[in-house]
Design a protein that fits this description.
Blueprint: H1 3-15, H2 25-41, H3 54-68, H4 76-90
Helix pairs in contact: 1-2, 1-3, 3-4
Length: 106
């Protein structure tokens, strides 16, 4: 994944009110991209997204971090909605926005 894609996803999160790394805007986006790439190269590699799925992947991973850090739990639903919106925006032929999803519980 390219740093520019990660930085753009960071900028989108910041505009939505969630800042994963505090600090000046440009510096935070750069540091976030470095951290994200460092984690990926350190063994947290789940695949290589292309430009059409990069933002959605960043939002989804950040939502998972929020779910693990209960103090940021309130941001998880917003980040997951951002991931879905990014998938629908960047992959219009692959997504069916009107398709319903049913969750099954035991």
């Amino acid at each position: 994944m390219r740093d520019i894609d990660i930085e753009q996803a960071y900028n989108d999160m910041e505009r939505s009110g969630y800042t994963p790394i505090p600090g000046p805007h440009r510096e935070g986006a750069r540091r976030y991209a470095e951290r994200f790439r460092g984690e990926e190269s350190a063994g947290f590699h789940i695949g290589s997204p292309d430009k059409r799925t990069a933002a959605a992947l960043v939002f989804t991973i950040e939502a998972a971090r929020c779910m693990c850090a209960i103090s940021n739990l309130d941001y998880a639903p917003m980040l997951l909605r951002m991931a879905i919106a990014a998938l629908e925006r960047d992959n219009p032929s692959a997504c069916s926005p009107g398709r319903s999803v049913k969750l099954f519980r035991s």
